[in-house]
């Protein structure tokens, strides 16, 4: 029962931590470290929630969640053959077992469904680009689509592509275009699409939970800020801020499904951060944040092994 209580407390702490983190501003000072913390909170909440239900249900086996699942499977087989007594017995434990397995199945299913839909959308769009996009010697390595609207986005994958519209080429100055392309290249290099995928899937599974929606929105903003920080190494922050404002005033075309676009929500927050950057989070604080995130991530799996 101790493991079930600890896992339930851990799941509650992760939910409360996510609620507080969604409204905090300090993550803007260290977006990469904050993204790692968000990932740790999400994974730990899922494993702790499932583990708390299973730990209570499988407590009669006395060997932890993983051992209890194996023992329950063996007893179920024997029970089906007419031998032995199926445990856990009683309605509460059987209900907890069913609820835990269903929650685990839902979390895995929505993650696979979100990934499948995203990858299919990318495959379709990649095929479309092969038909309508062209290369431009003025922007080597970038695919150009002849569209008058302002659009710039990254199509992630094993062969990531950065795409801009003809309207973008005419809208932005050379320096601004360099800044936008550096931003999109950062998305491709750091695979921010994979960072967002679990949070998108969780939003599918629990769309009515405000904490989940706020988490997805917060991580999406941090991903953009992380790409902004990477782009600042190769261009002027003010040029990137100006490019974002130009996109906003020109009514940027929404990025296609499965891609990461330059125009997004919270543009003014990003612009203010680029124009008036605050002090970065101290290195010791970032290291402590990473260490805490790693320890938090391993806590739930260890409790799954904790014997009852």
TrEMBL record:
Q: Which cofactor does it need?
A: Zn(2+)
Q: Which keywords label this protein?
A: Hydrolase, Membrane, Metal-binding, Metalloprotease, Protease, Transmembrane, Transmembrane helix, Zinc
PANTHER family, A to Z: POSSIBLE SENSOR-TRANSDUCER PROTEIN BLAR (PTHR34978), SLR0241 PROTEIN (PTHR34978:SF3)
Kindly name one Pfam family recorded for this protein: Peptidase_M48
Does the keyword field hold Metal-binding? yes
GO molecular function terms here? metal ion binding; metalloendopeptidase activity
In the record, biological process GO terms are:
proteolysis
Family label: Belongs to the peptidase M48 family.
Q: Where is the Peptidase M48 domain?
A: 122-199
User: Where, by residue number, does the polypeptide cross the bilayer?
Assistant: 34-58, 94-114, 287-306
Q: What is this protein called?
A: Integral membrane protein
Q: Supply the CDD domains for this chain.
A: M56_BlaR1_MecR1_like
Q: Keyword check for Lipid biosynthesis, yes or no.
A: no
Cofactor: how bound: Binds 1 zinc ion per subunit.
